[in-house]
Specification:
With 334 residues, this protein is an alpha/beta fold. The chain is 24% helix and 27% strand. The protein has ten helices and 15 strands. Strands 3, 4, 5, 6, 7, 14 and 15 form a seven-stranded mixed beta sheet that branches. Strands 10-9-8-11-12-13 form a six-stranded parallel beta sheet, sandwiched between helices. Helix 1 crosses helix 10, helix 4 crosses helix 5 and helix 4 packs across helix 9.
Length: 334
């Protein structure tokens, strides 16, 4: 039986029968293989996602993989049967930012799969076909369910513009941090340092290509060319900036709670640091992610620690919020 998770309101959800929505012109119907849960899904369930960034009642799920089952008018038939992942941001395609390829900055307002539009915690998902990215036929769809967070980090790595032989660092060792290590490893850095709050991810970081691993209370260098920050903790941005040489490049992806320690503008100006930020992934970052994944340079599977059926949605949400270092990526399987 087809089913879907519906979050009625903060703290209240149900499992209901799911009827696939036939694709309208320009759309595709995807059979969902797996869907990841991230901290923002927990925010949706708890009710602390910012106003305007969620619309109840809602089927969550913005990290997913699947297979195209049907397409609407105007969509190439050759998509049917293909393994795919899909962008979440529902951009307007006609504003200046969209024309510049910066679809996550669309001026028409925020709309995203799994937050304001029906998501993938269901047997099927119907969405604009232009958002799909086709995977190689032999792709592992369980691994591919993690390509959405990977694409957000790909956006950060592209902004960092790392060149072979440079000294680079990653602050944070969650899913995003481990993806950052893999993307940076593919660029052949001279040094790839990972900075963490605790040491439990040291072995995994080194397996993915880190040449050095330190906790933030240890002595840290100050001569790094580029840093990707993924932690989102209150002091992560300052920790990351302190690693940089003069003129170094910092890319922030974490969203800390209000009241975090800000970057010191005097320090930024005097050291002439370049600071970039990322929220979501434009199509170019998605294309880069799929290309790197298809080339075998990105291995998401070691990050997955739990796979549960949709019926165990509440248990999955609890796992994600438990703070247990043994809990990595949690997937739901429709």
């Amino acid at each position: 039986m087809s089913s879907a998770v519906v979050v009625e309101a903060p703290g209240a959800h149900r499992l209901e029968d799911h009827t696939p929505r036939p694709p309208a012109p320009g759309e595709a119907l995807v059979a969902v293989h797996a869907v990841g849960i991230c901290g923002s899904d927990r925010e949706v369930y708890q009710g602390n996602r910012p106003e305007g960034y969620v619309r109840y009642p809602l089927t969550p799920g913005h990290e997913w993989s699947g297979t195209v089952r049907a397409v609407g008018a105007g969509v190439p038939d050759r998509l049917v049967g293909r393994k795919v992942v899909g962008e979440g941001f529902r951009n307007c395609q006609v504003c200046d930012r969209c024309h510049a390829g910066e679809t996550t900055l669309c001026t028409a307002g925020y709309e995203e799969t799994g937050f304001t539009q029906p998501g993938a915690m269901a047997s099927t998902l119907t969405l604009p076909a232009r958002l799909l990215h086709v995977l190689p036929e032999d792709s592992d769809l369980t691994a591919a369910a993690l390509l959405e967070p990977a694409a957000c980090i790909a956006a950060a790595v592209l902004k960092a513009n790392v060149r072979p032989g440079e000294k680079v660092a990653v602050v944070g060792t969650g899913t995003l941090g481990m993806f950052a290590v893999q993307f940076l490893k593919a660029v052949s850095p001279g040094v790839l340092l990972v900075v963490a709050t605790r040491g439990d991810r040291a072995a995994m970081a080194r397996e993915f290509g880190a040449t050095d691993f330190r906790t933030k209370d240890q002595e840290l260098p100050g001569d790094v060319d580029a840093v990707i920050e993924t932690a989102g903790s209150g002091d992560a941005a300052r920790t990351a900036a302190a690693l940089l040489r003069r003129g170094g490049r910092l890319v922030l992806t974490g969203i800390p709670a209000p009241g975090a320690e800000g970057l010191d503008p005097t320090d930024l100006v005097v050291r002439q640091l370049e600071v970039f930020t990322v929220f979501g992934a434009p199509p170019s970052a998605w294309a880069h992610t799929v290309r790197v994944f298809a080339a075998g340079l990105l291995d998401p599977l070691p990050l997955v620690t739990h796979e549960l059926p949709l019926t165990e949605f509440s248990q999955a949400i609890d796992l994600v919020g438990a703070g247990d270092p043994k809990v990595g990526k949690v997937l739901l399987r429709p």
